[in-house]
Design brief:
This is Cytochrome P450. The protein has about 525 residues and is α+β, with helices and mostly antiparallel strands. It has one domain: Cytochrome p450 (Orthogonal Bundle). Helices cover about 50% and strands about 5% of the residues. The chain contains 19 helices and ten strands. Helix 14 packs parallel to helix 18. Bound molecules: protoporphyrin IX containing FE.
């Protein structure tokens, strides 16, 4: 049973008081919905559903993006599902996602309202903020730091952290697992650029905060499925009251969300007090705060914390999970690895590591970056958007308050658009020694749409470029061997969830030569 399905079921199951009232409400509601549907135009097609429950049982039990793509073969690229009067619209083609979420962004830039988000305080994170003044302010500040012309100032840190990553990959091979290695890389890069933390304060503690907060985040990130969303007054009942067990979960998630927001901030404040904080996004923003006093200063400080934590929260595990999938792709496709290394040998040569200035001369590496983003897209359903007003698309009605999901994974794994979608093939975007996307660039899809499009997209791609090129320049990535010395086959198995990871796989790492190994600085 899918998260949404089981949670909605449990909503029904856990409601034990006033069943008759609820039934009357449902019947009245059903009559009202049928009448409204008849008079106000049709919703986009979708499974027919059943009385009362609507499409509750149609929500996919297994990996939803694949199931939505299958559904779209029957009903078309825009499908609708309705549960208790809430319309969910799933967009399964780039055309529909761009038409609705991008071209009509003025109407679709809100996020679904959620009492659980309010209760947990998760709305400090930009990605969950409702559309409005606070969202605009936080987003503007983040964009100023990560638009294409601002990226140059971050590159020295990205390079240093990338070199450290190479060293740890080799030195800690077999001691620290690869998912943790990639998390350390992105965590350290962000904590330096965003918070200005000195090297000695880089702790796995912040990574653990991120991992610990994932369950609660996943729950609030998808449309929230708690009974309190239907009956808001339940939030005022004590947690010992029958049926209020969910409140304990919410309280745990609140603590985890607070820790993710506050821990790097506290570490930065401590480092500042010791005079050890480095110039960073945080120090630049706090300079502005230091000119203010009283309440105004307090409010501004909260905003700065929301900015810095939003970047750390959104930009660490997404990058790490994507880079992890790159390693998997290289083990499965040694021919891609060899072709990339030939390009690196020709352009960069044996005497140095790749630099950002090499990027335009490394089209095959750039094609790999695009294919990594597509092949294992880590945010398969993106973030939900919310229709602020009623709308019409291709003659269908999109009611005000509809929750709109772009099936990013489905769009990027549609065999009609990307033949043999499960095969990792950078050649999809590589022709005659150039990157040619022919309108198929995954980077225009994976980062979402419209006014809510990921503000870290250029920075994310920059990080992937430097790390992918550096790893391939120095190392051969190989499957692990079993006891009899045979390579262990690697299978890319994805996990379901708001952030999709690849399940762990074993690997070996081998320096391409002594000269290549010697390129990794040991004094960083
Ligand atoms: C491979 C890496 C990444 C992927 C696949 C990714 C994907 C996404 C997606 C799908 C969204 C939702 C867009 C929408 O609502 O339509 C998003 C939002 C966001 N991303 Fe990223 N992202 C990545 C890296 C980053 C990085 C490095 C940063 C920070 C520098 C970042 C910061 C954010 C923020 C703050 C939002 C919320 C934007 C808003 O709601 O207005 N992301 N990202």
């Amino acid at each position: 049973m899918s998260g949404l399905q089981s949670a909605l079921m449990s909503r029904i199951g856990s409601y034990s008081v006033g069943v008759t009232d609820v039934l009357i409400l449902f019947v009245a509601f059903l009559a009202f919905s049928i009448l409204r549907r008849r008079t106000r135009g049709k919703l986009p097609p979708g499974p027919p559903g059943v009385p009362i429950l609507g499409n509750l049982l149609d929500f996919p039990a297994e990996y939803p993006p694949d199931a939505y793509l299958d559904m779209s073969r029957k009903y078309g690229d825009v499908i609708s599902l309705t549960v208790f009067g809430q319309t969910f619209i799933v967009l399964n083609s780039a055309t529909a996602a761009i038409d609705i979420l991008e071209k009509r962004s003025a109407n679709y830039s809100d996020r679904p309202p959620s009492i659980v988000i309010e209760m947990t305080g998760w709305n400090w994170a930009l990605v969950l903020k409702r559309y409005g003044e606070r969202w605009r302010r936080v987003r503007r500040e983040i964009w100023q730091q990560f638009h294409p012309n601002a990226l140059g100032k971050h590159r020295a840190t990205q390079l240093t952290e990338s070199r450290r990553f190479l060293r740890r990959l080799y030195k800690d091979y077999g001691v620290v697992d690869l998912p943790m290695q990639t998390m350390e890389l992105f965590s350290a890069t962000n904590l330096t650029i965003v918070h200005g933390l000195p090297q000695k304060d880089m702790s796995r503690h912040f990574i653990h905060d991120l991992i610990a907060s994932e369950e609660g985040f996943a729950e609030v990130f998808g449309p929230s499925t708690f009974i309190v969303e239907l009956f808001p007054w339940l939030r005022h009942l004590p947690s010992w009251f029958p049926g209020m067990g969910w409140q304990k979960k919410v309280s745990g998630w609140t603590q985890e969300s607070d820790a993710l927001r506050d821990d790097p901030w506290i570490a930065a404040k401590n480092a500042m007090a010791r005079g050890e904080l480095k110039p960073s996004i945080l120090t630049a923003l706090m300079e502005g705060v230091s000119q203010l006093e009283g309440k105004e200063a307090e409010t501004e400080e909260v905003i700065v914390k929301e900015i810095t934590s939003s970047i750390y929260g959104a930009g660490t595990d997404t990058g790490a999970a994507t880079l992890y999938s790159f390693f998997c792709a290289m083990l499965i496709h040694p021919e891609v690895q060899k072709r990339a290394q030939a390009e690196l040998d020709a352009v960069v040569g044996p005497d140095r590591l790749p630099e950002y200035s090499d990027r335009s001369s490394l089209p095959y590496i750039n094609a790999i970056v695009k294919e990594v983003l597509r092949w294992h897209n880590v945010s398969p359903l993106g973030a939900s958007h919310y229709a602020m007003e009623e709308d019409e698309y291709r003659g269908w009605r999109i009611p005000k308050g509809s929750i709109i999901t772009a099936n990013i994974w489905g769009i990027l794994h549609d065999p009609d658009v990307y033949p043999e979608p499960s095969v990792f093939r950078p050649e999809r975007y590589y022709k005659d020694g150039k990157v040619v996307t022919d309108g198929l660039d995954p980077a225009t899809i994976v980062f979402g749409f419209g006014r809510r499009i990921c503000p870290g997209r250029y920075f994310g791609e920059d990080s992937l470029f430097i790390n992918i090129s550096s790893v391939l320049h120095v190392f051969d990535l190989l499957p692990a061997l079993d006891k009899s010395g045979k390579p262990i086959p690697v299978v890319a198995k994805k996990t379901s969830g708001a952030l999709s990871l690849l399940e762990p796989f074993e690997y070996r790492i081998k320096p391409r030569s002594e000269t290549a190994l010697a390129l990794i600085p040991d004094d960083l």
